[in-house]
Amino acid sequence: MKKPVELIIFDWDGTLFDSVGQIVDSLLYAAKEFGQPLTHDAAKSIIGLGLPEVAQVLFPTVPELHTGILKSYGDHYVEHSKDDQWFTGVSEMLHDLKNQNIKLAVATGKSRRGLDRVLAQTNSVHLFEITRAASETKSKPDPLMLSEILSQTGVNAENAIMVGDTSYDLEMAHKIQMPRVGVSYGVHSIDTLQRFNPLMIADNVQGLHQFLSQ
């Protein structure tokens, strides 16, 4: 790993937060409510994109239904995700990295409202220097949210690391030559993540913690 690392930017769903299953279930529920075909694998594959992009990818032929589908998804997700929490070991990892004076940030496909809800749910607002949600910038894999985080923190791309479980995370970091780390316990396969030349791919939070603490 290139030193010094001043900033680590984390994706949220599937990287820090064990929410992939509920996101998929809520997307399937919303699709069924509006009579739209959707498979489990298709629903899982778009996790990480902003919600408008999710609707465009999954339901391209019925743009008139997008608002209703996304509302149905959001209502179902909020109602059924109250017990979702961080993957085991995430709290310890984040506190340890912060105690090493490494700046922490979040770059997520969630809306700001959704991100604020789970930051409160995990009592973690104080851990992050800055958080960026897809609703207030461009969706992954556009690197704008990373550029905004770098600008806000005053850190150069080469002194930061992006950590994520999807190709969207690693692709946006690759576009601005930011070092990146994949995790295989989230959404996309190891083969998919390897296309973007990550420094490593962690199989679990403990392995991720060990690598980032080096």
Would you kindly provide a written description of the structure presented here, covering whatever features stand out?
The protein has helices at 20-33, 40-45, 51-58, 66-80, 90-99, 112-121, 144-153, 167-175, 190-194, 205-212, and strands at residues 7-10, 103-108, 130-133, 160-164, 180-183, 201-202. 42% of the residues are buried. α1 crosses α4. It has a six-stranded parallel β-sheet with strand order 3-2-1-4-5-6, sandwiched between helices. The protein has 214 residues and is of the alpha/beta class.
- Low-pLDDT segments: none
Average pLDDT works out at 95
What class do helices, strands and sheet pairing give? alpha/beta
Our measurement of the CA-to-CA distance between the termini, rounded to an integer number of angstroms, reads 8 Å
User: Which sequence of SSEs, written as H and E, runs from N to C?
Assistant: EHHHHHEHEHEHEHEH
Share of residues in helices: 40-55%
Number of helices: 10
Count the strands?
Answer: 6
CA-based gyration radius = 17 Å
Tertiary shape: globular
- Report strand %: 5-15%
For the largest beta-sheet, the strand count, sense and barrel status come to: 6 strands, parallel
Strand order of the largest sheet: 3-2-1-4-5-6
